[in-house]
Design a protein that fits this description.
The protein has 2 domains: 9-219, BirA Bifunctional Protein, domain 2; 226-271, SH3 type barrels (Roll), CATH 2.30.30. It is globular, with a radius of gyration of 18 Å. With 276 residues, it is α+β, with helices and mostly antiparallel strands. Helix 1 packs across helix 5. 26% of the residues lie in helices and 31% in strands. The protein has helices at 9-16, 34-43, 92-110, 176-180, 186-205, 209-219, and strands at residues 25-31, 51-57, 76-85, 115-117, 121-126, 129-142, 147-156, 226-231, 234-243, 249-252, 258-261, 265-268. A 7-stranded mixed β-sheet has the order 1-2-3-7-6-5-4, sandwiched between helices. Strands 11-10-9-8-12 form a 5-stranded antiparallel β-sheet.
Length: 276
Amino acid sequence: MTGIPQLDIAHLQRLLHPLRVGRHIRHETVCASTNDLAHAMLEGGAPSGTVVVAEEQTAGRGRFQRAWKSEAGQNLLFTVIVRWPRDGFAPTWLTLAAALSVRQAVEELFHLSPKIKWPNDVVLTLGDGVQKLAGVLTEATTLGPREQGAVVGVGLNVNQVWMPHDQDPERPRVSLASALGRRIDREPLLAGCLASFDEHLTNLSKGHTGDLVAEAQRHLTGIGRAAHVRLPNRSWRGILVGIDRDYHLLLRDEHGEPHCISAGEVLFGSQDLRGG
């Protein structure tokens, strides 16, 4: 990481004081995965709101075990530990809360208009293309008869810039630096993401999932567009209608039949290259 400044954790914590999220921060120059490290800390008793952040991951991953690769010191790679009662909310809401938190921080700091790409991505729409700015990976576990726990991992593209030949045509990426044409200070951005997540956690603890759904519906990308939703053993095609109160995707096929989809990957237009 020669010549690339690392995150100033003391400054970050000053920005976050007195919030619960970020009160405890573990900062690693290199680790295999912030989610894996956070999971070990969760099992070891780390309090809810603890954040693990790394400059570089050697085995970062997203959904479906896809590798998440990031140049050292260029982006934000962080995981938040969350604990809550067994009779509380479903872990799915943490994914949405984290995605909405990133979306809100980017909008407020940079006056961009990021969208939510169901179920776990934050995207920018550039021309007709939807490009991935951030992804969320939530991994939940049962901690005992009365408690659930989860690690909520986020990869946010900040200063890395990809050449066209480095892009996956199905899943094009974009960073804030490439969208804005300048280098971004990471501490205020991470503080904004974590402060928004702290607020969303407070609302979740009060059972306000409806507020999350309403916010997601307002910022959902692709409404009214033709979409292809894929799982390894099943797929759907149709017009994306929106989401329901349980954060399932609503799709209407060519025959006008509605489909309520609980898991899958959404592709639009030119992203859907493989068909079938």
